[in-house]
Amino acid sequence: MFWRKKRRDSAPSVDEYLRDVNGPPTAVTGAPGQAPPSEFGPPVPPAASVPAGGFSLVVVDVFRITGRGTVVTGVLADGVARVGQQVAIVRDGAHVASSELGGIEAFRRVREEAAPGENVGLLLRGLSKDRVKRGDIVAGR
């Protein structure tokens, strides 16, 4: 029938093509559960666990609301954030600043607390916008 095409037996498979492009496979070295050596440097160690009653949030964006304070946004990684909690700003494992959590907002709703996995904005009192950068960790105590 005219709509059926002939099979091409001479066409290389995807695996053969990738072997030609990437070269032969190499053995992965290192202990199980550890990242293999990389040309980008040593693997990043896992983050320290959050203390009991605390939380952590990796900062995605920072902005200032006049008359209110500095707002950081991101996804709450673990723990429960509550209004009035003391927080620390951590950059590259070093303490940068401290503040108090003045408010929590999620999708334009003011909240008293936020659970892990929620995308939230945290209002930090008495902290200038210049002290916090994208990638910093906000850790509650």
From TrEMBL:
<feature type="region of interest" description="Disordered">
    <location>
        <begin position="1"/>
        <end position="45"/>
    </location>
</feature>
<dbReference type="InterPro" id="IPR050055">
    <property type="entry name" value="EF-Tu_GTPase"/>
</dbReference>
<dbReference type="InterPro" id="IPR009000">
    <property type="entry name" value="Transl_B-barrel_sf"/>
</dbReference>
<dbReference type="Pfam" id="PF03144">
    <property type="entry name" value="GTP_EFTU_D2"/>
</dbReference>
<dbReference type="InterPro" id="IPR004161">
    <property type="entry name" value="EFTu-like_2"/>
</dbReference>
<protein>
    <recommendedName>
        <fullName>Translation elongation factor EFTu-like domain-containing protein</fullName>
    </recommendedName>
</protein>
<feature type="domain" description="Translation elongation factor EFTu-like">
    <location>
        <begin position="69"/>
        <end position="138"/>
    </location>
</feature>
